[in-house]
Amino acid sequence: MSDSKGIFLKDATVNAADGDQRAFIRKALGGYYTNRDLQKARYRDWERARDAASMAKWSAVNDLANVLEKFVANFERNGGVVHWARDAAEARAIILKIAEDAKAKAIVKSKCMTSEEIHLNDALEKAGYGVVESDLGEFIQQLRGEAPYHFVFPCMHVKREAISELFTKHLGTAPTDSPEELTMIARRHLRQLYIDADIGITGANFLVAETGQISITENEGNARLTAALPRIHIALSGIEKVVNHLDDLSVLLPMLATAGAGQPMTCYNTLYSGPRKPGECDGPEQFHIVLLDNARTRLLADPEQRDALHCIRCGACLNVCPIFKNIGGLAYGTTYQGPIGSVITPHLRGLKQWNHLSGASSLCGACTDACPVRIDLHHHLLHNRRNAAKESPTLFDRVFHNGFNFVIKRPWLFATGGRLFRATLPLLQKLPLPYMSAWMKTRDLPKAPAKSFRDEWKNHENV
Amino acid sequence: MRVSLFIPCFVDQLTPKVGLATAKVLKRLGHQVEFRTAQTCCGQPSFNSGQWDVAREAAVRALEVFRGTEVVVGPSGSCVAMMRNFYPELLKGTPYAAEADDLAARTFEFSEFLVKKLGVTDVGAKFAKKVTYHDGCHALRELRLKEEPRQLLRAVKGLELIETEEAETCCGFGGLFSAKFPMISTAMVQVKGGALARTGADFVVSSDPSCLLQIGGWLSREGKPILPLHIAEVLANDA
Amino acid sequence: MSDARTDIFARIREALKVKAPRPHLKAETSSPKTSVAAKPWLPDGGETIEASLQILSEQLAKLKAVLIRVPDHAAAARALAELATQKSWKKVAFHGHPMIQPLVAALPCEVWEADKSFDKQRLEGCDAGLTTCESIVAQLGSILVSSQSSGGRALSVLPHAHVVIAEVAQVVPDLGASLALAKSRHGESMPSMLSYITGPSRTGDIERILVLGAHGPKELFLILVG
Question: Within a domain: residue B37?
Fold first, then answer.
């Protein structure tokens, strides 16, 4: 068993048994479902909108080299600097170099999952920079010293009492149980940090090839401030975030908001096309973008699962996933949790180490229905399982399934075996058999009938 | 119509009454019903476990078993989805591809067959009980069946249909998943079973016997006063 | 060793040698690629200006943004002064724009033209920022500001309240129309920032409970003339 699987099983077992925490998560998501349904109802045809969103991403991803070239040419024409990183280490080195050249001290960040993916904060802090996360949820997680629980709602699992204690400990503020007051504490604390920061680091939700702009989606205004006040703006983005046309955003931005947060639009959707222009009164002097591969091209090379690169990181698949809701986001041990994380993590970090996430699914398909860009999520979990069985088969699985096959290809043996199975079921239920004992721990089996259907059928031709 | 029954292997062995009820309803509607005894398991457990070579063998055997049938009807959204959606995927690019597509097109889930193929909603059943309906994920999301079973239930004399919160939430069965990840599967059936029990219904009805195995198994263990029942058993009841 | 850019492009070209099937589309989608095409499946933005204004006013109300309709610029000046009094604003920063300059003259408090210098600390000390906008999207209740129309990047987001002054003619039905307008207006020389503002700043990060004014303005006012 891989280490990551062992940790997963342990955490999932603990969390799945924590009824209070599970109820808390379901309650927290209650408002999301209501708002999402209200907003979806405003679409005159949500399914057609999904088609259009899916096609917008499909056409860019399947022509990635050309679309990226176009984006880069336009981005540079607008005065931005482009950097390329094959992997996490290269991306970290590029950002450290920019900070060093700028003689920066303080860095403010807005929410960027790609930076979690490359463990950027650790690297910056080790190099002596002060780094602060400005998104409220990320700020709370940074103080907790914990990875995000959900890649859109980073601290949705933390109760207000714990946040109040955290703020008292780190910021010296008086305890309060009001979410409003807690938010204002963070607001006041972070304001001066934006003003003092030398560098602002953001992610990017879309890169628009046609115009060379990057699009950033957020609700709080922290990304707006991060890209407005410091003298250097660095955006870190995966190469798959590119779209062809500015007009693609007329579909993607509302859908991202509706699917992800149940909003018509998130509060701020901002397009940046460069550093401060002549005649503009503020904004950074430098604008850098770091374009990251980090195994995305490995996923690109799999045409069957290439559509996983259409992902716009809305989080809708997490919000509807019964696995996510019952084991929580931290149990995954990945940057990207939930169904999309289970699909892509084996590609990004190794199938053998991470295939268990594809196994830990009932394949209910709620994720696939929720996905605004029509990623075939739950079927890709099946594809990962197939690839893993081929790449690193386990002896138990081979024996079990070949044995099962030996029986089911012989109807007489199936019938005889069934008879034996039914006769001994009361005994089998008490034995420490694989699968059977795991089932029996929390569930009963029906009483085995004396006759099988095929036995009955002989006598009941005239049912 | 000549109907060939597609009886899931665990229904054959553990809940034969579901198969018998299916046959009874079809016969009552005047159809010829046959059961080909060479059938065993559709191969879904192996398919879901990534053992596609094993599943492919099972698929080819099923093609042989059901060769020459007019329509194939199964009382299980999950097993029918295997045949309808996943056989074509498994056998794509093999000499069996066309036959797999052909079988997929004439295979129906029981309630789907009644409502969509035959256009029947009232099968003359009586059942004076309060029931709630559980959507099996395969029926709901692979076969896109939502209204069909409800139309059938609403037409049953005396039956009161109550909707459940979490109606579209997975029960946590997922085949071998329920035994490979029992803690997650159990947490899921707690959510589902809890919601079902709160409806105050006498029965939870589904077109998926595998979900009923999971839900019924948990309800029984927890001593909840609501019983699992397959939709065919409700529709077969005419007394 | 080749550089990262060359390597990544080589990987992409190699990966794309095998084609992926087009996505399974549920509906008959003709051509989602034609730009500025009407998209009759997205939320409605209204076919007439009356319909658009109706949708806009509903959207803004749901977003907890305040819409103030006035017949002319003189009325706008009065509405703004009233707002400043009611909210007890002491310092208001504004974008030096011909539509705004006459309005601030009547304000009963200290005013400062933020375009003149980039003073973050001073801007942070302002109670409100007053800007124009590029266009207003009825469909979504979004207001498009730019680094040109809003006196830079910070004025519309750093002060505690944001007031936008606009004319009815700036209202467009949907997001596609607004993006097309920005493209035709600026061509290859886009402002360095274009931002769709959809309601006051908000967060749900604590227990998914909505709180307004996370980092940006707690209050958003749209004074619409005409």
Answer: yes
